Amino acid sequence: MSDTQRDGTDAEGASLTSEEGYEPRDVFGTTTEMDLRSGADNCTKVGTCDAECPVAEVNDDFPGPQFQGPEQWRLSSKGDVEIDDSITECSNCLQCDSGCPSGVPFSEMHNTARAKYVLEEQSLSIKKIRNRILANYRTSAWLASKLPRTANFFMNNGAVRWVMEKTMKIPSEREFPEFATQTFREWWRERGGAQVQSEEKRVAYFHGCYSNYNTTEVAKAMVRVYESLGYEIVVPKQKCSGTPMFANGRVDDARRHAKVNVEHLGDAIEAGYDVIATCSSCSLALRQEYPDLFDLDGIDELAAHTYDAMEYLRVHEDLESELAGAQAEDFPDVAYHAPCHSRNQGLGRQAVELFEDVEGVTVTDVGDSCSGISGTYGWKEEKYETSMEIGEEMFEHMEDADAEHGMTECPTCSMQMEHGTGYEISHPMQLLERVLT
Amino acid sequence: MLVIGGGIAGLSSALSAAQAGADVRLVSEAETTLHHASGLLDVLGYPPNADVDGPVVDPFDAIGELPETHPYAIVGEQAVRDGLAMIDDVLGEAYHGSHTDANALVPTHGGTVKPTARYPTSVAAGLASDDRELLLVDFERLTGFDAGVAAEHLEAAGIPAETNAATVEFPIVVRDDAKVTRYAHLLDENPTVTVDGREQRVRTALADAIEPHLGEAERVGFPAVLGVDHPAEIRNELEDRLGAAVFEVPMGPPSILGGRLEDRLYAALDDAGGEIEAGGGPIVDFDADDGTISEIYMDRSGSRIPYAAEQYVLATGDVAGGGIDADRAGVTEPIFGCDVPHPEDRYEWFEGEAFGDHAFAEFGVVVDDALRPVGAEGDPEFPNLRAAGAVIGGYDYPAEKSASGVSIATGYAAGRRAAKEV
């Protein structure tokens, strides 16, 4: 939540001051939802954001988050300066957000500036069209899921890939994720939905696009873990969380999808369910980007009731005692990468902590570097090199770790980890499934 | 046991409790607290509220003279020594200063000299008391350090060494306002560059660029950007190539020296078995059971995440750090509502002069001998809550240069005491 909103709704503070007989004078006019002035004013220019930025680290032409956020806001808010096209170089990892000591709402500022650039200023081009297609991954995935085997064959066919690089500027080095022959939702329907009923323990699963169309084993692992602990699960109607859309400036598309999500997840919350997500970018979008960017009924309620799937269990179950001394049979040792969007939620160490006392498996943290793929970022031909250069540190640390298997919560970090090291990558929920069920 | 705050006070509390065998978790609102710190660890640089000019020579001698409300007087000299010993042990070879009680005089990026008790090994060759001739070097496009200005200031301060300055091009052209981390990583990676048609490693090329300016200098001071991962290796290589001692000059934020200190302290806490949760959000509320704190709540993007422990340490900092709130209505400690004494009239909170003896500089909670915050009547607010670092009032750390020392000493003492109770 930005300070803009906090200041605007500080009812307690206002009543305190009025008791003292002091009447605040509004110097800057009424703050509206998108007025980022107080966010820009918070910036004291210490530059931690630029020092933390993985793109600025490898790309000298990128002016860095301090410019993209507060400085650009000041320049463009006067109306006579256009958004600089370097905004598209930002990968939306949000390390600037976590690094800032003054609470500058970088994600809100970047998303707003990027949307303004893409929707109002950027001229139509192949790249712009490609970005919209990438942003709307859900649509492509939905199409592919209709004929998954054909899609898998064609998407990784050399000739097709060459054509895609030439026409769509999709780097031919990347391997397309495999589409599941049965989506998670199809599996869920086929098994007859929830197998456990409970009045007290109820969660609504936000699977997002990736664990529905691609890594359905992550979603199934979540179901088995939660049901083994006595939770009733519902899988409400949902669309894309909006993460790839924010990153590509398509706030218009994101808003449409958010409306559906807020409505259906909101219904579940009203019926006593908390929302959980296995993808760190999905949970971040629902908790942080939604209330920052959209003014929809129930959006704060949704943020307050959304959790990462592992975080939720740690709050509500005594997982530590369950796992102490437990056995992870035949699970390989893993090099674990904490996604930027997990670290943004303060969850970067939970997997390492959680599995510390489990017998038979070692989870090694590979440090706080960014994987570099940042969702759709590394899927653009012109960003591929940057993406791999950012990822270099993580690849090295993974190879140094005593493991030949990787682990992370983020689906695209997982693609990058596999791409850079050739390791197979799991989700912590899959290890939890192995230990608990 | 739960420690709230990820600065030096929080880290010292958590480390001391973990070493004493307690099950500790540290929660910190931000991920990068110490990136804003100089990396120097001071104990007492100047006497508080005294008319004596000049820095304190021996801070331990001065502790006895402090008013009884000063945090050092509350924990006692031995706790200051024990806390520092704990930190010395953790930092090992990476830090200097434990060989003496006396303050070292460290030149900083503006050319001022800071009295400090502990300093990174990488700044050791730069001490202002050393009479070997020195050369300060800055890079053409690096903001935040001007070698010429710093050298003039040092000369004006009357340091015994002859001091010169030079500006060189960093061998790889980086953007105009590139951050210190960019330089540091380039020196870590040491890639090949082409200089005047010759292929060279960055470190070699940098040494070559400095060589013509060296003159008779026996030591060369760089802005503190000499590597994040391999500082000792980089320094050794530059020393070999230059035939002179090499040192780093501490800089403002974002600070590489602060970052290195942070990495070491967090790694030590991790090794001691402490659990760390940084960047999740602020602690905003608590529940009490019969006057004892039973749970605290983190606001993680709108969701309330509960944390329960038997003992709590409040290490959230002062007004600048967010541990104390001051507004027109008054001054408060926002999480537990602990009493923060302050003049009723807001105009008594500060003086007219910028560097005057401001009352606000000493705002903070009042603690008893066991470091428990007390109410207006002098009784502990909660039996299981202790405070450490700048959230404690009664001293003016920017004026007396005692921020790290008070954090370490009170953190150490609070951690040990809390560990005894769990």
From TrEMBL, chain A:
Region Disordered, residue ranges: 1-29
Pfam families on file: CCG (PF02754), Fer4_8 (PF13183)
Membrane-traversing stretches: none
Keywords: 4Fe-4S, Iron, Iron-sulfur, Metal-binding, Oxidoreductase, Repeat
Cellular compartments per GO CC: glycerol-3-phosphate dehydrogenase (FAD) complex; membrane
Entry's Gene Ontology BP terms: anaerobic respiration
Gene3D superfamilies, alphabetized: Alpha-helical ferredoxin
UniProt-listed SUPFAM superfamilies: alpha-helical ferredoxin
EC number: 1.1.5.3
InterPro entries, alphabetized: 4Fe4S_Fe-S-bd (IPR017896), 4Fe4S_Fe_S_CS (IPR017900), Cys_rich_dom (IPR004017), G3P_DH_GlpC_su (IPR017753), Helical_ferredxn (IPR009051)
Entry keyword annotation includes Oxidoreductase: yes
Protein name: Anaerobic glycerol-3-phosphate dehydrogenase subunit C
Organism: Halorhabdus tiamatea SARL4B
Taxon lineage: Archaea, Methanobacteriati, Methanobacteriota, Stenosarchaea group, Halobacteria
From TrEMBL, chain B:
EC number: 1.1.5.3
Keyword Flavoprotein assigned: yes
Tree of life domain: Archaea
One GO CC term, this protein: glycerol-3-phosphate dehydrogenase (FAD) complex
One MF annotation (Gene Ontology) recorded for this entry: glycerol-3-phosphate dehydrogenase (quinone) activity
Annotated FAD-dependent oxidoreductase 2 FAD-binding domain residues: 2-402
Gene3D superfamilies per record: FAD/NAD(P)-binding domain
Keyword Lyase appears in the UniProt entry: no
Keywords of this entry: Flavoprotein, FMN, Oxidoreductase
Name of this chain's protein: Anaerobic glycerol-3-phosphate dehydrogenase subunit B
Source species of the chain: Halorhabdus tiamatea SARL4B
Gene that this sequence comes from: glpB
